[in-house]
Amino acid sequence: MTAYLIKNVSLVGAAPTDLLIRDGVVAEAGAGLTAPDATVIDGAGLVALPGLVDLHTHLREPGREDAETVESGSRAAALGGYTAVCAMANTSPVADTAGVVEQVWRLGREAGLVDVQPIGAVTVGLAGERLAELGAMADSAAGVRIFSDDGHCVADPKLMRRALEYVKAFDGIIAQHAEEPRLTEGAQMHEGEVSTRLGLTGWPAVAEEAIIARDVLLAEHVGSRLHICHVSTAGSVEVLRHAKARGVKVTAEVTPHHLLLTDSKAETYDPVYKVNPPLRTATDVAALRAALAEGVVDIIATDHAPHAVEDKECEWAYARPGMLGLETALSIALDVLGPQWDLIAERMSRAPARIAGLAGHGLDPAPGVPANLTLVDPAARRTIEPAELASRSRNTPYARMTLPGRIVATFLRGEPTVLDGKAVK
Q1: Domain end point (choices 356, 391, 411)
Q2: 309-346 pLDDT, tens per residue?
């Protein structure tokens, strides 16, 4: 295994120092380090962060390899500075058995670019009718601890309660896609002034907020862990703030696009801006940014959702919802939060690693720590060109936007997956 000596790099925004990586761990950190056998990387002007961790990624394999594979999604993640991603269960077949989650886990290991941790389905076939094999998935080689029907809400309160009770036995988490389906039938975008003007059926904020309110009460009653996926409204923030003040074991995520984009994008009728939950108002965006800084919303998660051309480049009503996110998430965080490196490390690495229980991830670079880290050039600016993305899909809402920050290198247990901004393999 090659040793690497990173010279004059800032560790999570601190004063420049040297970092020696050897045998998969950070061997030394300090000024004036030397290592004749090591490959030297000039870290001047760069910031070293713990490798990013994404709690919400769609890798599409098995079943939709035309949109993404575990390998292509892993490469996109590494180029985005990630060392671990949690792969959602809405594959084909659905990841609702030990066999399917083990397949995804093994494909991740074979790719070797990031640690791929499968998320298991809560219900069989995501149908919301009966619980999937939660215990078998937890006991599998993949060691599943997070379960979600993402893309579908576990709408039945009795079933949701049973799921929360079941996973409590092994400290598991139910990650809820909060959407009351009877309030969103036929919905095309956020319900509000813009939807009224465009004549598109609206997706009301209360459809999200009502499910979150119900589920935090269920989680409190059961004493189990609940995670809320892609929070998108100011009202949801208030429900979460109240729940956390009561001591409910609830965590929540926000996506980069909900921190930056608003429902006004729908005025273009460009289906790249169609997403679930939909883009909301500027008031919601401001509330989400404040909640992220405050810690009411715990993490940034990408909800990376690649789609094949025929599923996205069509009329708005027929387009599938979702956006790419892995290769641009850190840039959006920098754009929204500025160079608050400790906050970025907490929201994009430490906290998601803690929630998912990913040992060896989310740890600041320090002697003895596994060398899962990323090097960022905060002064660089780059224009997003869809054709240059590693994902098999091209549905990025940031096409031709110029964004701050560039991933220079990513290391997974001391092995580079990205060097000089390019994938190593």
Answers
A1: 356
A2: 999 999 999 999 999 999 999 999 999 999 999 999 99
203-238 per-position pLDDT tens digit: 999 999 999 999 999 999 999 999 999 999 999 999
Inter-CA distances, 72 with 24, 222, 355, Å: 24, 39, 25
Please tell me the distance from the alpha carbon of residue 92 to that of residue 252, in angstroms, as a whole number. 27
**150 counts as catalytic:** no
The domain that holds 35 is classified in CATH as: 2.30.40.10
Nearby residues of 223 by Cβ (< 8 Å), 6 or more positions away: 168, 249
How many helical (H) and strand (E) elements, i.e. helices and strands, does the chain have? 13, 19
Q: Which of 215, 284, 303, 377 is flagged as catalytic?
A: 303
Of 283, 278, 287, the C-alpha closest to 257 is: 278
CA distance 63 to 69: 9
Residue 202: give its domain's CATH number.
3.20.20.140
Q: Which two tokens stand for residue 288?
A: 């989400």
Same domain? 70 vs 196 = yes
Question: Structural domain tally of the chain?
Answer: 2
**Which residue stretches of 199-296 are H helix?**
205-222, 234-245, 256-260, 282-294
Same domain, 88 and 102: yes
